[in-house]
């Protein structure tokens, strides 16, 4: 698990600073330290880390999967550029368990919004497409 430990370290370091890396980005980061590593090895290690419950995988339709540290937090997702931001909402596991009637292992909350950059871009585009009054 030489690569596995390094991959876990890369994910923990990047996600602690709010960055959610794709397998490809993790591969590039790992390659700096281990030039002989191949992408398939990264995928294999990511899968086994995920199966062991050591990392989280964030799947969004239309975007590559991103990997995250396995601590309880939720995400704010930009519906336009797919940007992920960490959110620390109160844990509702107990309420969910009460509603479904059996123990759950966890949940993944994604709140959709338009990030400030996309909102600004959209406003600029709207301003451009608007006839200028005359
Ligand atoms: Zn955005
Ligand atoms: Zn996160």
Distance between the termini: 68 Å
The set of bound ligands, ions and cofactors reads: zinc ion
Count of individual domains: 2
Largest sheet: 3 strands, antiparallel
Could you give the count of β-strands? Answer: 6
Number of DSSP helical runs: 5
Helix content: 40-55%
Question: Based on the structure given, which CATH architecture of the largest domain is correct?
Answer: Orthogonal Bundle
Contiguous runs where pLDDT drops below 50 for at least 5 residues: none
**CATH topology type of the largest domain:** Arc Repressor Mutant, subunit A
CATH homologous superfamily grouping of the largest domain:
Winged helix-like DNA-binding domain superfamily/Winged helix DNA-binding domain
Spatial strand order of the main sheet: 1-3-2
The CATH class assignment of the largest domain is Mainly Alpha
Question: Could you explain how this protein is built, in words?
Answer:
- The chain is α+β, with helices and mostly antiparallel strands and 134 residues long.
- It has helices spanning 2-16, 23-33, 39-51, 93-100, 116-129; strands at residues 21-22, 55-60, 63-69, 74-78, 84-87, 110-113.
- The protein is flat, with a radius of gyration of 19 Å.
- The strands form two sheets. The chain has a three-stranded antiparallel sheet.
- The protein has five helices and six strands, in the order H-E-H-H-E-E-E-E-H-E-H.
- 46% of the residues lie in helices and 21% in strands.
- The model has no long low-confidence stretch (mean pLDDT 93).
- Helix 1 packs across helix 3 (39-51).
- The site of one zinc ion has 6 residues, from loops.
- One zinc ion (ZN) binds at residues 15, 20, 68, 73, 75, 86.
């Amino acid at each position: 698990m030489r690569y596995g430990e390094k991959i876990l370290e890369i994910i923990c370091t990047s996600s602690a600073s709010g960055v959610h890396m794709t397998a490809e980005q993790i591969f590039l980061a790992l390659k700096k330290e281990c030039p002989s590593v191949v992408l398939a090895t990264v995928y294999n290690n990511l899968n086994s880390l995920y199966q062991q419950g050591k990392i989280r995988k964030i799947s969004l339709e239309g975007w590559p999967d991103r990997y995250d540290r396995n601590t309880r937090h939720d995400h704010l997702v930009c519906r336009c550029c797919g940007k992920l931001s960490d959110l620390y909402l109160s844990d509702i596991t107990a309420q969910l368990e009460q509603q479904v009637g059996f123990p759950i292992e966890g949940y993944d909350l994604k709140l959709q919004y338009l990030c400030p950059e996309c909102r600004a871009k959209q406003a600029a585009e709207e301003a451009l497409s608007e006839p200028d009054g005359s």
